[in-house]
Write the structure tokens for this entry.
Amino acid sequence: MVPALMSRGRAGRSGSSRPRSLPALLPVLLSAWLLGGCGGPEPAVRDYYYTLEPPISVTPSAHRLNATLLVNELAARGFVGGSQIVFREADAPLEARRYNDYLWEESPARAIAEDLVSALRAARVFDYVVTVTDRAHADYLLGGELTRFEHLPTSEPPRVAAEWTLTLVDGRERDTRFSKTYLGEEPTQGHSAEAMAMAFNRLTARLIGQAVRDLQTLAPRLRGGA
């Protein structure tokens, strides 16, 4: 698997460090092997951190709904809830694994919720879009669960996949007004870890854009706040 053989290095932001290809890495691996065989010091192990900053583009609503929306962090179970990037190989489709040295700067579930907040504010769907830390009264609650966010490096072509469900609840009557699953795949433009991170960002932007448009369509059928 190509990504697992890339060099390790610190990358504070997505794409700020470019992992080397396998041919460029072979001399480094050979040197490390020779040092290990001669009792030399082990090479330092460092991590790559990538940021989920999807390039989201939304069209502002013609009219805002006179209501406050509270967006909760998405729930996530298992590997998908952690910071290590999850991958799945074609010859073992039922086995999810994690990269040791490729990590998200922030867990995807939290990052997606934050990006959704920013997109909804830019789209002007509701008068106010808040989070739990704002401690504000909310007319509607938006939450959900991230169930898939993984790299498929050995697929043809290599790609990333994501799936999450969003549910909108009326905060006054506690009834569900909207629930939908968003899922998709995005090919990587290359075999590097940087290409993987960029594909995750493109896919996340596309799915969040779909969610925002769905809420814009729904908003006129919702009642405003008190």
